[in-house]
Design brief:
By secondary structure, this protein is an alpha/beta fold. It is built from 7 helices and 13 strands. The chain binds manganese (II) ion.
Length: about 240
């Protein structure tokens, strides 16, 4: 098995290092990841400047671009053959509900999916990397699981509670929940007295009922959500057709 690994926290992040270490025991791995933290970059591609590929002493490739750039360049310019799987993460912080639209972690997996390759995005709930080795072991278990019965290619979004491996024994299939509107922007000023802004934190969970990713992880379970990229609002399309008639 050949696995392409990327992330959005950058190639030096503990999450991608722990993940690569575990997956190297079961597959041929290639790591291609951003050279800096590009969290929240969604599916953006860099089109206004050239991109450089560097190779670190441990064999990881880093690129001065986004997660989508990394997977795109890996698949079209670095790898000789297509990988069997694209894996992204392990992200520092959850990617649930509406987060998935902004997430660079999910985007790296999505880029593989759009190239017809099965893909899995892994995120760890909460911050701090306390149990990142445990999350990486669990990620390896999931990669080894029989997922070939799924419609291929599949795109899976996995959120892992920040707990010891022995407490990560329940994996549940979920749907995305929903968040409230984001917190307001944070206003401040720079040393010259000019006004500056920081994007505020995401809103709290709004739709966190049974069956959602929020509900699963709040119970300490590992959440797996199958994603698709078709954004067409089908019932609205029918209404629109009537309006335009
Ligand atoms: Mn991130």
């Amino acid at each position: 098995m050949k696995i392409l690994i990327s992330n959005d926290d950058g190639y030096l992040a503990p999450g991608i290092n722990a993940l690569a270490e575990q997956l190297a025991t079961i597959a041929d791995i290639v790591v291609v990841a951003p050279d800096s933290n590009r969290s929240g970059s969604s599916n953006s591609l860099t089109l206004d400047r050239p991109l450089r590929v560097m190779r670190a002493a441990n064999g990881f490739y880093s690129i001065n671009g986004t997660p989508s750039d990394c997977v795109h360049i890996a698949l079209t310019g670095i790898l000789d053959t297509q990988p069997d799987l694209v894996v992204s993460g392990i992200n520092q912080g959850q990617n649930m509900g509406d987060d998935t639209l902004y997430s660079g972690t999910v985007a790296a997996a999505t880029e593989g999916f759009l190239f017809g390759i099965p893909a899995i995005a892994f995120s760890q709930v909460d911050y701090g990397w306390a149990h990142i080795e445990d999350a990486a072991k669990l990620a390896k278990d999931i990669v080894l699981r029989r997922l070939d019965e799924l419609q291929t290619p599949y795109l899976l979004n996995v959120n892992i509670p920040n707990r010891p491996y022995g407490e990560l024994n329940t994996v549940v299939a979920t749907r995305l929940g929903k968040r409230h509107q984001s917190e307001p922007v944070i206003r401040s000023s720079d040393p010259h007295g000019n006004e500056i802004f920081w994007i505020g934190p995401p809103g709290q969970a709004k739709e966190a009922s049974e069956g959602t990713d929020f509900h699963a992880t709040s119970h300490g379970w590992v959440s797996m959500t199958p994603l698709q990229i078709d954004l067409t609002h089908s019932s609205q399309l029918e209404r629109l057709k009537r309006v335009l008639r």
